[in-house]
Design goal:
There is one protein chain. The N and C termini lie far apart (about 50 Å). The longest helix has 13 residues. This protein has two domains: about 240 residues, Cytochrome c-like domain (Cytochrome Bc1 Complex, Chain D, domain 2, Orthogonal Bundle), CATH 1.10.760; about 140 residues, Cytochrome Bc1 Complex, Chain D, domain 2. It has 16 helices and four strands. It has a two-stranded antiparallel sheet with strand order 1-2. With about 400 residues, the chain is mostly helical. It is globular and about 60 Å long. The structure holds heme C (HEC) (2 copies). The site of one heme C has 29 residues, from helix 4, helix 5 and helix 8. Involved in methylamine metabolism. Essential for the maturation of the beta subunit of MADH, presumably via a step in the biosynthesis of tryptophan tryptophylquinone (TTQ), the cofactor of MADH. Pathway: One-carbon metabolism; methylamine degradation. It is found in: Periplasm.
Length: about 400
Amino acid sequence: MKCLRWLAVFSLIAPAVWAEDPQDDWQLSEVCPPGFVLEGESCKFSSLYSEYPSLQDAGMGGLKVGLPEPRDGFKPAEIDLGRLLFFDPVLSGDGSVSCASCHQPDKGFTDGRALSRGIHGQIAERSAPSLWNVGFLDTLFWDGRAKSLEEQMLGPLYAEHEMGNTPEQLMASLSANPTYVKLFKQAFPERGLTLDTVYIALAAFESSLISLNSRYDLYAHGFHDVLNQNEIEGMNIFRSFVARCGECHTPPLFTNRELAVLGTPEPTGRPLDIGAEGPTGDRSLRGGFKVPTLRNIELTAPYMHSGRFKTLRETVEFYTKGRGHAVPEGEHLSIHWHIWEPKLTDAELDRLVDFLLTLTDQSFMPVIPERVPSGLSVVDALNHSEITTTPVAMGDTP
Ligand code: HEC
Ligand code: HEC
């Protein structure tokens, strides 16, 4: 077992090969994606981090910190079917938008926009978060309003301004497609195609998006030469009791999976986003958002729930500009006690950015299907956000 885990670490060097895109006949993969091993019929998550103490026991200071329970136990065919669904615009009301339109693989599964664009170019309320390691999370959406992947996806699928579908229409379009009917039978022999199996397949695919083989991870597992002096300095600032980044962005996921009120600014002209106060009704969570992972942060600009910051440097600088400096006048937010004025120097901010860039790892990138069972264009859906270019008001940094 240990050997397998080491293999997972070293697959950083060998490019990951997973399911080939089926060319002639549609067949689902019988192989687990990288990062998982087949146990019986299902894929079990495997990582060196599973050997370390849990997130709670080890505290934020140490590098050898374990992971929370992953979502695993899906069959290879379920995961592979989820991959096809994820890239298939048939999931949207007008066949123009896929999940991948807003969660694009080459942008860390985000869309490069401050605010996402749904069908007919409609503007979503917030920025699309990365989906890397999303299978470890049990608090989803920026305001934490969904507790599972299955609950979360009902949002985009049926929101009028995102994918604009209805459960009835989704079932009608998938059941009218003999390939999907066959593939659902293959992945779910007993249940076949139902709304639930659509959701399970998508959740299975999302849970396979594992990014734990960055240069930082090699360092954490004992290969100390992989980080240079600047990066190590940045890591030490990140973990320090002055900057306190690691208390919220706790390794190895770089999130403690909690909500926190920071008082980040909205784009000019947009009112305060009340965040987690909305779903919870809790006044102390006004302007609170879930602590996002910093994995692959290099690829997911612009940053924060509103996409307010264009660069990592600008984002990191927010933390040293003074507690509450961007809170609109007249608003009183219960800002988290770890947000204060650490007075980081320009050089220290640069080192923090150096460190954040060590968290990039796409070695387990799934294969983007060249075609999907609906026959709709995967590429047009991926380019969707470039086609619809309604400008968003973006102000200067306050
Ligand atoms: C129109 C763009 C768009 C489409 C299409 C879309 N998403 Fe998203 N997604 C977003 C935005 C924006 C958010 C954040 C919304 C919020 O927090 O209020 C989000 C949030 C998420 C999250 C929560 C991640 C986290 O860390 O909290 C998951 C998971 C997710 N989407 C999966 C999907 C899946 C699966 C599909 C396809 C069924 C999909 N998305 C389609 C834009 C989109
Ligand atoms: C009190 C908890 C907390 C602390 C401490 C903290 N963060 Fe954050 N961080 C958050 C939350 C919450 C967000 C999202 C806020 C929003 O969208 O308005 C965030 C967002 C970010 C983002 C943008 C992520 C994205 O996907 O857009 C970066 C980068 C970041 N933090 C880096 C840091 C660094 C560097 C430090 C230390 C100087 C730090 N954070 C300290 C909670 C924290």
